[in-house]
Specification:
Number of helices: 8
Structural class: alpha/beta
Radius of gyration: 18 Å
CATH architecture of the largest domain: 2-Layer Sandwich
Number of domains: 2
Strand order of the largest sheet: 3-2-1-4-5
Strand content: 25-35%
CATH topology of the largest domain: Nucleotidyltransferase, domain 5
Helix content: 25-40%
Order of helices and strands: EEEHEHEHEEEEEHEHHEHH
CATH class of the largest domain: Alpha Beta
Oligomer: single chain
Number of strands: 12
Shape: globular
């Protein structure tokens, strides 16, 4: 099964194509720029490097959120367009699921943290059980102190929010807090593709027309609009 996946949830941007469990090609950009300037070029480059053509793909995967409102819209609209144009299925993947998966086989509780701005983080809790990643709580957004207040065991933190609020987390949890390596905290499109594979194989795909980003909270525009009425 050949899957093209895109991640634009945070400031990094990546595109990958996998065939079963093998990564055929992956292109990543780590600088903070508008994804719309580079994404289509990155997709074209990844397809060229993979040695396949778009029509040979079996499906498309993309991060559905949480993350950057603008970034998610760009990634999702691009992948929806490709899926519709090629009549191929689409699967949306949680950005927090991807970060947790990149701590593969951690013996600790895993807490992905994405910087949500406004002094808050997007987070959830995960644990590997027999090599299977299990989500223990729903995705939420809270100030970092509240996000970690119920943790009373050794935990590995991953994601940009883990580094932004590392001191606050250490002050709260002391030796219980561990931090993933920097490269684990950058979402990889190949991780998105691999997470999506089981859903493709089980025909558990998303409706393209109704697929929208999962923001968790409202955007500045929505909040300002509501307060002006």
């Amino acid at each position: 099964m050949k899957i093209l996946a895109v991640d634009t949830a945070v400031k990094s941007c990546s595109v990958a194509i996998i065939d079963k469990e093998s990564v055929l090609a992956e292109v990543a950009l780590g600088v903070e720029q508008t994804h719309s300037k580079h994404l289509i070029e990155m997709i074209n480059t990844t397809v060229k490097l993979s040695g396949i053509i778009i029509s040979e793909l079996d499906g498309f995967a993309v991060t559905r959120g949480p993350g950057s409102f603008t970034g998610l819209r760009i990634g999702i609209s691009s992948i929806k367009g490709l899926a519709a144009a090629t009549n191929k299925p689409l699967v949306g993947v949680s950005s927090l699921d991807a970060l947790a998966m990149q701590c593969f086989f951690s013996q600790y509780l895993i807490c992905p943290l994405l910087d949500a701005r406004r002094g808050e983080v997007y987070f959830s809790h995960y644990r590997f059980n027999g090599g299977i990643l299990k989500k223990e709580i729903d995705e939420q957004v809270l100030p970092p102190g509240e996000a970690v207040c119920d943790i009373n065991e050794e935990c590995i933190f991953v994601g940009d929010g883990a580094f932004v609020y590392q001191k606050a987390i250490r002050d709260k949890l002391g030796d219980l807090a561990h931090f993933a390596l920097p490269h684990q905290s950058t979402i990889r499109a190949s991780t998105i593709a691999n997470i999506s594979r089981d859903r493709f194989e089980n025909n558990d795909t998303d409706d393209i027309s109704g697929f929208v980003p999962f923001y968790i909270r409202k955007s500045y525009v929505e909040l300002n609009s509501k307060s002006s009425h």
